[in-house]
Amino acid sequence: MLVGLAAPASAASAVNDDHVTTGGFRPAPIAWQACPELPTDPTVRCGTVRVPIDWARPHGATFEVAVAKRSATDPSHLVGPLFINPGGPGGSGVDFALGANHFFSPNILAHFDIIGWDPRGVARSSPVQCSTTLLSQAPFPVPANRADFAALLAYNARLGADCRAHTGPLFDHVDTLSGVRDVDAVRAALGEHRISYYGVSYGTLIGQEFAEQFPDRIRAMVIDSNMDHSLGTEAFLRTEAVTDQDAFEQFVAWCDRDSFCVLHGQDVNAIWENLMHRADAGTLTIPGGTTPLTWFQLVSVAVGDLYGPSWSTLAAQIAQLNVQPMAKAAAAPALAPNPLAVFCEDWSLPVSGFQQMRQLFAESNSVAPQLRVSSLGWGVWTSCLNFPVSVNNPQHVLRVNTDFPLLEINSRHDPATAYAWAVDDAHQLGRHARFVTYLGWGHGAYPHSACTIGTVDSYLISRTLPAVGTACPAVPPPDPMAAIASPSLPAPNPIGF
Predict the structure, then answer these.
(1) Residues 94/117, Cβ–Cβ less than 8 Å
(2) Which pTM was predicted?
(3) For position 322, what pLDDT does the model report?
(4) Which domains does the chain carry?
Protein backbone atom coordinates (compact mmCIF):
# COMPACT_ATOMS: atom_id res chain seq x y z
CA MET A 1 0.00 0.00 0.00
CA LEU A 2 1.53 3.30 -1.09
CA VAL A 3 1.43 6.14 1.40
CA GLY A 4 2.23 9.80 1.16
CA LEU A 5 1.15 13.25 2.27
CA ALA A 6 -2.30 14.60 1.56
CA ALA A 7 -2.82 17.92 -0.17
CA PRO A 8 -5.34 19.99 1.79
CA ALA A 9 -6.57 23.27 0.42
CA SER A 10 -6.88 26.48 2.39
CA ALA A 11 -10.35 27.44 3.55
CA ALA A 12 -10.35 30.43 1.21
CA SER A 13 -9.40 28.42 -1.87
CA ALA A 14 -12.06 25.82 -1.10
CA VAL A 15 -14.91 28.30 -1.47
CA ASN A 16 -16.90 27.57 -4.66
CA ASP A 17 -14.04 25.44 -5.99
CA ASP A 18 -15.28 22.22 -7.58
CA HIS A 19 -11.77 20.77 -7.46
CA VAL A 20 -11.88 20.74 -3.66
CA THR A 21 -13.88 18.46 -1.38
CA THR A 22 -16.46 19.86 1.00
CA GLY A 23 -13.93 19.34 3.80
CA GLY A 24 -11.23 21.33 2.00
CA PHE A 25 -9.11 18.46 0.59
CA ARG A 26 -7.73 19.04 -2.92
CA PRO A 27 -7.00 15.79 -4.79
CA ALA A 28 -4.80 15.78 -7.85
CA PRO A 29 -6.55 15.52 -11.24
CA ILE A 30 -6.88 11.95 -12.48
CA ALA A 31 -4.18 10.88 -14.92
CA TRP A 32 -6.28 8.72 -17.22
CA GLN A 33 -4.65 5.86 -19.08
CA ALA A 34 -5.65 2.65 -20.82
CA CYS A 35 -7.26 0.07 -18.55
CA PRO A 36 -5.24 -3.16 -18.24
CA GLU A 37 -8.45 -5.18 -18.62
CA LEU A 38 -9.46 -3.44 -21.88
CA PRO A 39 -6.21 -1.99 -23.24
CA THR A 40 -7.45 -1.47 -26.81
CA ASP A 41 -10.83 0.08 -25.95
CA PRO A 42 -10.55 3.87 -26.31
CA THR A 43 -13.92 4.45 -24.62
CA VAL A 44 -12.69 3.31 -21.20
CA ARG A 45 -9.89 4.81 -19.15
CA CYS A 46 -8.52 4.04 -15.70
CA GLY A 47 -6.74 6.04 -13.04
CA THR A 48 -6.42 6.64 -9.32
CA VAL A 49 -7.22 9.30 -6.75
CA ARG A 50 -5.00 9.57 -3.68
CA VAL A 51 -6.96 10.18 -0.47
CA PRO A 52 -6.24 10.08 3.28
CA ILE A 53 -6.38 6.72 5.05
CA ASP A 54 -8.05 8.50 7.95
CA TRP A 55 -10.20 11.45 6.94
CA ALA A 56 -9.85 12.81 10.48
CA ARG A 57 -6.14 13.23 9.66
CA PRO A 58 -6.12 14.68 6.13
CA HIS A 59 -2.41 15.56 6.42
CA GLY A 60 -1.50 11.95 7.23
CA ALA A 61 -0.79 8.85 5.21
CA THR A 62 -2.73 8.25 2.00
CA PHE A 63 -3.63 5.46 -0.38
CA GLU A 64 -4.98 5.29 -3.92
CA VAL A 65 -8.61 4.72 -4.87
CA ALA A 66 -8.91 3.00 -8.25
CA VAL A 67 -11.29 4.69 -10.72
CA ALA A 68 -12.58 3.81 -14.20
CA LYS A 69 -14.46 5.93 -16.74
CA ARG A 70 -16.57 4.76 -19.67
CA SER A 71 -17.12 7.78 -21.91
CA ALA A 72 -20.58 8.73 -23.14
CA THR A 73 -21.37 7.39 -26.58
CA ASP A 74 -23.02 10.70 -27.55
CA PRO A 75 -20.84 13.42 -26.02
CA SER A 76 -22.86 16.13 -27.79
CA HIS A 77 -25.72 15.29 -25.42
CA LEU A 78 -23.61 14.67 -22.33
CA VAL A 79 -25.47 15.18 -19.06
CA GLY A 80 -22.41 14.63 -16.87
CA PRO A 81 -20.83 11.88 -14.78
CA LEU A 82 -22.88 8.96 -13.46
CA PHE A 83 -21.15 7.38 -10.49
CA ILE A 84 -22.05 3.70 -10.09
CA ASN A 85 -21.51 1.07 -7.41
CA PRO A 86 -22.56 -2.63 -7.44
CA GLY A 87 -22.71 -3.22 -3.68
CA GLY A 88 -21.24 -5.99 -1.61
CA PRO A 89 -19.56 -4.70 0.40
CA GLY A 90 -16.69 -5.87 -1.73
CA GLY A 91 -18.09 -5.30 -5.21
CA SER A 92 -15.76 -3.63 -7.70
CA GLY A 93 -17.06 -0.38 -9.15
CA VAL A 94 -14.20 -0.43 -11.64
CA ASP A 95 -15.39 -3.77 -12.99
CA PHE A 96 -18.95 -2.44 -13.01
CA ALA A 97 -17.87 0.53 -15.14
CA LEU A 98 -15.84 -1.64 -17.50
CA GLY A 99 -18.92 -3.82 -18.06
CA ALA A 100 -21.49 -1.02 -17.91
CA ASN A 101 -22.28 -1.43 -21.62
CA HIS A 102 -23.78 -4.83 -20.74
CA PHE A 103 -25.92 -3.47 -17.90
CA PHE A 104 -27.21 0.02 -18.63
CA SER A 105 -29.46 0.97 -21.51
CA PRO A 106 -28.10 2.69 -24.64
CA ASN A 107 -29.81 5.89 -23.46
CA ILE A 108 -27.83 5.96 -20.24
CA LEU A 109 -24.60 5.09 -22.04
CA ALA A 110 -25.22 7.90 -24.52
CA HIS A 111 -25.84 10.64 -21.97
CA PHE A 112 -23.36 9.90 -19.19
CA ASP A 113 -19.69 9.35 -18.57
CA ILE A 114 -19.91 6.27 -16.37
CA ILE A 115 -17.62 6.53 -13.34
CA GLY A 116 -16.89 3.45 -11.24
CA TRP A 117 -14.50 3.18 -8.33
CA ASP A 118 -13.32 0.42 -6.04
CA PRO A 119 -14.24 1.48 -2.50
CA ARG A 120 -11.49 1.60 0.09
CA GLY A 121 -10.46 -1.88 1.18
CA VAL A 122 -11.87 -3.46 -1.99
CA ALA A 123 -10.29 -4.92 -5.15
CA ARG A 124 -7.72 -2.42 -6.55
CA SER A 125 -8.11 0.07 -3.68
CA SER A 126 -5.80 -1.52 -1.07
CA PRO A 127 -8.05 -4.54 -0.44
CA VAL A 128 -8.47 -6.00 3.02
CA GLN A 129 -6.47 -9.23 2.91
CA CYS A 130 -6.71 -12.23 5.20
CA SER A 131 -5.06 -15.62 5.42
CA THR A 132 -6.95 -18.14 3.31
CA THR A 133 -5.87 -20.88 5.70
CA LEU A 134 -7.48 -19.06 8.61
CA LEU A 135 -10.57 -18.21 6.56
CA SER A 136 -10.98 -21.90 5.77
CA GLN A 137 -11.06 -22.68 9.50
CA ALA A 138 -14.21 -20.66 10.18
CA PRO A 139 -16.46 -22.44 12.65
CA PHE A 140 -20.06 -23.30 11.88
CA PRO A 141 -22.01 -20.02 12.21
CA VAL A 142 -24.83 -21.50 14.29
CA PRO A 143 -23.23 -22.60 17.57
CA ALA A 144 -24.79 -25.65 19.21
CA ASN A 145 -23.69 -24.77 22.75
CA ARG A 146 -21.83 -22.22 24.85
CA ALA A 147 -18.46 -23.77 24.03
CA ASP A 148 -19.14 -23.39 20.30
CA PHE A 149 -20.27 -19.81 20.88
CA ALA A 150 -17.03 -19.02 22.73
CA ALA A 151 -15.03 -20.66 19.94
CA LEU A 152 -16.81 -18.49 17.37
CA LEU A 153 -15.94 -15.31 19.26
CA ALA A 154 -12.32 -16.39 19.67
CA TYR A 155 -12.03 -17.22 15.99
CA ASN A 156 -13.42 -13.84 14.93
CA ALA A 157 -10.86 -12.11 17.12
CA ARG A 158 -8.02 -14.14 15.56
CA LEU A 159 -9.27 -13.47 12.05
CA GLY A 160 -9.53 -9.75 12.66
CA ALA A 161 -5.96 -9.61 13.96
CA ASP A 162 -4.78 -11.59 10.94
CA CYS A 163 -6.60 -9.29 8.50
CA ARG A 164 -5.22 -6.18 10.20
CA ALA A 165 -1.67 -7.57 10.00
CA HIS A 166 -1.99 -8.35 6.29
CA THR A 167 -3.83 -5.13 5.39
CA GLY A 168 -2.18 -2.37 7.40
CA PRO A 169 -3.61 0.88 8.78
CA LEU A 170 -6.46 1.08 6.26
CA PHE A 171 -8.07 -1.94 7.94
CA ASP A 172 -9.52 0.30 10.66
CA HIS A 173 -10.89 2.89 8.22
CA VAL A 174 -12.93 1.01 5.63
CA ASP A 175 -16.37 2.07 6.88
CA THR A 176 -18.85 3.49 4.39
CA LEU A 177 -18.84 6.95 5.95
CA SER A 178 -15.11 7.19 5.17
CA GLY A 179 -15.89 5.77 1.75
CA VAL A 180 -18.33 8.53 0.84
CA ARG A 181 -15.60 11.07 1.60
CA ASP A 182 -13.59 9.23 -1.05
CA VAL A 183 -16.48 9.62 -3.50
CA ASP A 184 -16.46 13.36 -2.92
CA ALA A 185 -12.71 13.32 -3.54
CA VAL A 186 -13.22 11.54 -6.88
CA ARG A 187 -15.82 14.17 -7.76
CA ALA A 188 -13.34 16.91 -6.90
CA ALA A 189 -10.58 15.22 -8.90
CA LEU A 190 -12.93 15.34 -11.90
CA GLY A 191 -13.72 19.00 -11.20
CA GLU A 192 -17.47 18.33 -11.25
CA HIS A 193 -19.90 20.48 -9.28
CA ARG A 194 -22.58 17.77 -9.02
CA ILE A 195 -22.81 14.10 -9.82
CA SER A 196 -25.55 11.66 -10.73
CA TYR A 197 -25.47 8.32 -8.95
CA TYR A 198 -26.75 4.76 -9.36
CA GLY A 199 -26.05 2.37 -6.50
CA VAL A 200 -27.45 -1.09 -6.03
CA SER A 201 -27.60 -3.20 -2.87
CA TYR A 202 -24.83 -2.13 -0.45
CA GLY A 203 -24.19 0.65 -2.96
CA THR A 204 -27.46 2.17 -1.71
CA LEU A 205 -25.86 2.71 1.69
CA ILE A 206 -23.07 4.62 -0.05
CA GLY A 207 -25.70 6.68 -1.85
CA GLN A 208 -27.79 7.32 1.25
CA GLU A 209 -24.79 8.51 3.25
CA PHE A 210 -23.40 10.59 0.37
CA ALA A 211 -26.81 12.28 0.19
CA GLU A 212 -26.69 12.96 3.93
CA GLN A 213 -23.14 14.34 3.89
CA PHE A 214 -23.09 16.17 0.54
CA PRO A 215 -26.67 17.02 -0.49
CA ASP A 216 -25.58 19.98 -2.62
CA ARG A 217 -23.32 17.72 -4.71
CA ILE A 218 -26.17 15.55 -6.04
CA ARG A 219 -27.88 16.14 -9.36
CA ALA A 220 -29.90 12.89 -9.30
CA MET A 221 -29.54 9.65 -7.34
CA VAL A 222 -31.02 6.17 -7.82
CA ILE A 223 -30.82 3.71 -4.93
CA ASP A 224 -31.82 0.24 -6.12
CA SER A 225 -32.40 -2.67 -3.69
CA ASN A 226 -32.07 -0.78 -0.49
CA MET A 227 -30.17 -1.25 2.75
CA ASP A 228 -31.96 -0.10 5.91
CA HIS A 229 -29.20 1.24 8.12
CA SER A 230 -31.50 1.93 11.04
CA LEU A 231 -32.10 -1.66 12.22
CA GLY A 232 -30.94 -3.32 15.41
CA THR A 233 -29.94 -6.95 15.81
CA GLU A 234 -33.38 -8.57 16.10
CA ALA A 235 -35.00 -6.55 13.32
CA PHE A 236 -32.04 -7.05 10.98
CA LEU A 237 -32.05 -10.84 11.38
CA ARG A 238 -35.84 -11.19 11.27
CA THR A 239 -36.33 -9.12 8.12
CA GLU A 240 -33.50 -10.94 6.37
CA ALA A 241 -35.03 -14.32 7.24
CA VAL A 242 -38.48 -13.18 6.08
CA THR A 243 -37.21 -11.97 2.70
CA ASP A 244 -35.20 -15.15 2.04
CA GLN A 245 -38.18 -17.33 2.93
CA ASP A 246 -40.46 -15.27 0.69
CA ALA A 247 -38.06 -15.61 -2.25
CA PHE A 248 -37.82 -19.37 -1.70
CA GLU A 249 -41.62 -19.70 -1.57
CA GLN A 250 -41.83 -17.80 -4.86
CA PHE A 251 -39.45 -20.35 -6.38
CA VAL A 252 -41.54 -23.27 -5.09
CA ALA A 253 -44.70 -21.67 -6.50
CA TRP A 254 -43.00 -21.34 -9.89
CA CYS A 255 -42.03 -25.02 -9.84
CA ASP A 256 -45.62 -25.95 -9.04
CA ARG A 257 -47.07 -24.03 -11.99
CA ASP A 258 -44.35 -24.23 -14.70
CA SER A 259 -43.47 -27.45 -16.49
CA PHE A 260 -40.07 -25.96 -17.34
CA CYS A 261 -39.03 -26.65 -13.72
CA VAL A 262 -37.28 -30.04 -13.55
CA LEU A 263 -39.05 -30.62 -10.23
CA HIS A 264 -42.49 -29.82 -11.64
CA GLY A 265 -45.10 -32.20 -10.32
CA GLN A 266 -43.00 -33.16 -7.28
CA ASP A 267 -43.19 -32.00 -3.68
CA VAL A 268 -40.36 -29.47 -3.77
CA ASN A 269 -40.62 -28.65 -0.08
CA ALA A 270 -40.38 -32.33 0.85
CA ILE A 271 -37.31 -32.82 -1.37
CA TRP A 272 -35.70 -29.73 0.15
CA GLU A 273 -36.49 -30.88 3.68
CA ASN A 274 -34.88 -34.23 2.93
CA LEU A 275 -31.72 -32.46 1.76
CA MET A 276 -31.65 -30.39 4.95
CA HIS A 277 -32.01 -33.56 7.05
CA ARG A 278 -29.20 -35.23 5.10
CA ALA A 279 -27.05 -32.16 5.74
CA ASP A 280 -27.94 -32.35 9.46
CA ALA A 281 -26.88 -36.00 9.49
CA GLY A 282 -23.63 -35.30 7.65
CA THR A 283 -24.56 -37.49 4.69
CA LEU A 284 -24.73 -34.69 2.11
CA THR A 285 -21.12 -34.58 0.98
CA ILE A 286 -18.87 -32.80 -1.48
CA PRO A 287 -17.78 -35.22 -4.23
CA GLY A 288 -14.35 -36.73 -4.20
CA GLY A 289 -14.23 -37.06 -0.43
CA THR A 290 -16.19 -37.16 2.76
CA THR A 291 -16.39 -33.41 3.48
CA PRO A 292 -20.00 -32.72 4.45
CA LEU A 293 -22.12 -30.01 2.90
CA THR A 294 -23.78 -28.28 5.86
CA TRP A 295 -27.35 -27.09 5.88
CA PHE A 296 -26.07 -23.52 6.12
CA GLN A 297 -24.04 -24.01 2.91
CA LEU A 298 -27.07 -25.57 1.24
CA VAL A 299 -29.18 -22.55 2.13
CA SER A 300 -26.41 -20.26 0.81
CA VAL A 301 -26.52 -22.06 -2.54
CA ALA A 302 -30.28 -21.60 -2.75
CA VAL A 303 -30.20 -17.93 -1.82
CA GLY A 304 -27.49 -17.30 -4.41
CA ASP A 305 -29.72 -18.74 -7.12
CA LEU A 306 -32.62 -16.55 -5.98
CA TYR A 307 -30.65 -13.38 -6.76
CA GLY A 308 -31.36 -13.41 -10.53
CA PRO A 309 -33.53 -15.17 -9.91
CA SER A 310 -32.17 -18.34 -11.55
CA TRP A 311 -35.10 -20.56 -10.66
CA SER A 312 -34.26 -23.18 -13.28
CA THR A 313 -30.70 -23.41 -11.99
CA LEU A 314 -31.86 -23.82 -8.40
CA ALA A 315 -34.32 -26.54 -9.43
CA ALA A 316 -31.57 -28.37 -11.31
CA GLN A 317 -29.19 -28.13 -8.34
CA ILE A 318 -31.82 -29.44 -5.93
CA ALA A 319 -32.60 -32.30 -8.32
CA GLN A 320 -28.89 -33.09 -8.65
CA LEU A 321 -28.30 -32.96 -4.91
CA ASN A 322 -31.22 -35.29 -4.45
CA VAL A 323 -29.26 -37.98 -6.29
CA GLN A 324 -25.63 -36.83 -6.07
CA PRO A 325 -23.53 -34.07 -4.41
CA MET A 326 -22.41 -30.78 -5.87
CA ALA A 327 -19.18 -29.91 -7.63
CA LYS A 328 -15.99 -29.59 -5.61
CA ALA A 329 -14.64 -26.12 -4.86
CA ALA A 330 -11.31 -25.04 -6.36
CA ALA A 331 -8.20 -24.62 -4.22
CA ALA A 332 -7.71 -21.13 -2.78
CA PRO A 333 -4.61 -18.88 -2.82
CA ALA A 334 -2.59 -18.05 0.31
CA LEU A 335 -4.29 -14.67 0.83
CA ALA A 336 -7.84 -13.76 -0.05
CA PRO A 337 -9.72 -10.45 -0.16
CA ASN A 338 -12.22 -10.22 2.68
CA PRO A 339 -14.34 -7.04 2.83
CA LEU A 340 -16.14 -8.19 5.97
CA ALA A 341 -14.45 -5.37 7.92
CA VAL A 342 -16.53 -2.87 5.94
CA PHE A 343 -19.77 -4.35 7.27
CA CYS A 344 -18.39 -4.71 10.80
CA GLU A 345 -17.40 -1.04 10.87
CA ASP A 346 -20.84 -0.01 9.60
CA TRP A 347 -23.10 -2.04 11.90
CA SER A 348 -23.44 -2.49 15.65
CA LEU A 349 -25.47 -5.71 16.06
CA PRO A 350 -24.65 -6.95 19.57
CA VAL A 351 -25.79 -10.13 21.29
CA SER A 352 -25.66 -10.68 25.04
CA GLY A 353 -24.53 -14.29 24.83
CA PHE A 354 -25.32 -17.79 23.63
CA GLN A 355 -28.81 -17.85 25.12
CA GLN A 356 -29.90 -14.75 23.22
CA MET A 357 -28.34 -16.17 20.05
CA ARG A 358 -30.47 -19.30 20.42
CA GLN A 359 -33.55 -17.11 20.88
CA LEU A 360 -32.68 -15.15 17.75
CA PHE A 361 -32.19 -18.42 15.85
CA ALA A 362 -35.60 -19.63 17.00
CA GLU A 363 -37.21 -16.37 15.84
CA SER A 364 -35.57 -16.64 12.42
CA ASN A 365 -36.57 -20.29 12.13
CA SER A 366 -40.17 -19.42 12.95
CA VAL A 367 -40.44 -16.99 10.01
CA ALA A 368 -38.22 -19.02 7.64
CA PRO A 369 -39.15 -22.67 8.27
CA GLN A 370 -37.60 -23.97 5.03
CA LEU A 371 -34.31 -22.03 5.32
CA ARG A 372 -34.06 -21.66 9.14
CA VAL A 373 -32.09 -18.41 8.86
CA SER A 374 -30.96 -15.97 6.21
CA SER A 375 -27.53 -17.31 5.32
CA LEU A 376 -26.54 -13.81 4.23
CA GLY A 377 -27.83 -11.86 7.22
CA TRP A 378 -26.91 -14.46 9.83
CA GLY A 379 -23.52 -15.02 8.23
CA VAL A 380 -22.36 -11.40 8.30
CA TRP A 381 -23.82 -10.89 11.78
CA THR A 382 -22.04 -13.81 13.39
CA SER A 383 -18.81 -12.97 11.56
CA CYS A 384 -18.76 -9.52 13.15
CA LEU A 385 -19.29 -10.71 16.72
CA ASN A 386 -16.08 -9.91 18.62
CA PHE A 387 -14.39 -8.85 15.37
CA PRO A 388 -11.74 -6.39 16.59
CA VAL A 389 -12.78 -3.17 14.87
CA SER A 390 -14.63 -0.07 15.97
CA VAL A 391 -18.08 0.63 14.55
CA ASN A 392 -17.11 3.93 12.95
CA ASN A 393 -20.44 4.29 11.14
CA PRO A 394 -23.24 3.00 13.40
CA GLN A 395 -26.88 2.76 12.36
CA HIS A 396 -29.10 5.81 12.44
CA VAL A 397 -32.32 7.13 10.93
CA LEU A 398 -31.71 8.78 7.56
CA ARG A 399 -31.53 12.58 7.53
CA VAL A 400 -31.43 13.57 3.85
CA ASN A 401 -32.16 17.13 2.74
CA THR A 402 -31.46 17.24 -0.99
CA ASP A 403 -33.10 19.86 -3.21
CA PHE A 404 -34.31 17.13 -5.61
CA PRO A 405 -35.80 13.80 -4.54
CA LEU A 406 -33.82 10.59 -4.73
CA LEU A 407 -35.36 7.73 -6.73
CA GLU A 408 -35.73 4.58 -4.65
CA ILE A 409 -36.60 1.29 -6.37
CA ASN A 410 -36.90 -2.25 -5.02
CA SER A 411 -38.15 -5.67 -6.11
CA ARG A 412 -41.14 -6.90 -4.14
CA HIS A 413 -39.52 -10.34 -3.75
CA ASP A 414 -35.87 -9.40 -3.30
CA PRO A 415 -33.94 -12.21 -1.56
CA ALA A 416 -31.21 -9.99 -0.09
CA THR A 417 -32.37 -6.45 0.62
CA ALA A 418 -35.84 -6.90 2.03
CA TYR A 419 -38.74 -5.00 0.53
CA ALA A 420 -39.56 -3.97 4.11
CA TRP A 421 -36.19 -2.22 4.22
CA ALA A 422 -37.09 -0.12 1.18
CA VAL A 423 -40.48 0.76 2.65
CA ASP A 424 -38.81 1.84 5.88
CA ASP A 425 -36.23 3.89 3.96
CA ALA A 426 -39.03 5.61 2.04
CA HIS A 427 -40.63 6.63 5.34
CA GLN A 428 -37.31 7.95 6.61
CA LEU A 429 -36.61 9.90 3.40
CA GLY A 430 -40.12 11.34 3.17
CA ARG A 431 -40.46 14.05 0.52
CA HIS A 432 -36.77 13.69 -0.33
CA ALA A 433 -37.40 10.44 -2.23
CA ARG A 434 -39.83 8.90 -4.70
CA PHE A 435 -40.38 5.16 -4.21
CA VAL A 436 -41.02 2.74 -7.09
CA THR A 437 -41.88 -0.93 -6.60
CA TYR A 438 -40.96 -3.64 -9.08
CA LEU A 439 -43.61 -6.27 -8.41
CA GLY A 440 -41.38 -9.14 -9.44
CA TRP A 441 -38.37 -11.05 -8.24
CA GLY A 442 -34.63 -10.80 -7.93
CA HIS A 443 -31.97 -8.57 -6.47
CA GLY A 444 -31.42 -5.35 -8.41
CA ALA A 445 -34.64 -4.04 -9.95
CA TYR A 446 -33.30 -1.86 -12.79
CA PRO A 447 -32.67 -4.42 -15.55
CA HIS A 448 -35.84 -6.46 -15.12
CA SER A 449 -38.32 -4.76 -17.41
CA ALA A 450 -38.99 -1.95 -19.85
CA CYS A 451 -40.87 -0.23 -17.03
CA THR A 452 -38.01 -0.33 -14.51
CA ILE A 453 -35.43 0.66 -17.12
CA GLY A 454 -37.59 3.43 -18.54
CA THR A 455 -38.46 4.84 -15.12
CA VAL A 456 -34.84 4.97 -13.99
CA ASP A 457 -33.57 6.29 -17.33
CA SER A 458 -36.12 9.12 -17.46
CA TYR A 459 -35.26 10.14 -13.94
CA LEU A 460 -31.48 10.10 -14.48
CA ILE A 461 -31.45 11.74 -17.92
CA SER A 462 -34.20 14.36 -17.63
CA ARG A 463 -34.89 14.28 -13.86
CA THR A 464 -38.47 13.20 -14.52
CA LEU A 465 -40.03 11.93 -11.33
CA PRO A 466 -42.42 8.97 -11.59
CA ALA A 467 -45.89 9.34 -10.17
CA VAL A 468 -46.32 8.69 -6.47
CA GLY A 469 -47.07 5.00 -5.94
CA THR A 470 -45.61 3.84 -9.25
CA ALA A 471 -45.36 0.05 -9.50
CA CYS A 472 -43.82 -1.80 -12.42
CA PRO A 473 -45.49 -5.13 -13.31
CA ALA A 474 -43.60 -8.36 -12.73
CA VAL A 475 -41.86 -9.96 -15.70
CA PRO A 476 -41.24 -13.73 -15.47
CA PRO A 477 -37.54 -14.54 -15.17
CA PRO A 478 -36.04 -15.55 -18.53
CA ASP A 479 -35.15 -19.13 -19.32
CA PRO A 480 -31.43 -20.00 -19.02
CA MET A 481 -30.59 -19.35 -22.69
CA ALA A 482 -32.32 -15.96 -22.72
CA ALA A 483 -30.62 -15.03 -19.46
CA ILE A 484 -27.21 -15.25 -21.15
CA ALA A 485 -27.99 -12.16 -23.20
CA SER A 486 -29.89 -10.24 -20.54
CA PRO A 487 -28.35 -7.37 -18.56
CA SER A 488 -27.01 -8.30 -15.17
CA LEU A 489 -24.84 -7.13 -12.34
CA PRO A 490 -21.19 -8.18 -12.22
CA ALA A 491 -20.31 -11.51 -10.60
CA PRO A 492 -21.81 -12.03 -7.13
CA ASN A 493 -20.24 -9.79 -4.53
CA PRO A 494 -18.06 -11.27 -1.78
CA ILE A 495 -20.69 -10.71 0.89
CA GLY A 496 -23.76 -10.44 -1.27
CA PHE A 497 -25.76 -7.26 -0.57
Answers:
(1) yes
(2) 0.93
(3) 87
(4) 11-127+174-230+396-484 (3.40.50.1820), 129-171+231-338+348-394 (no CATH)
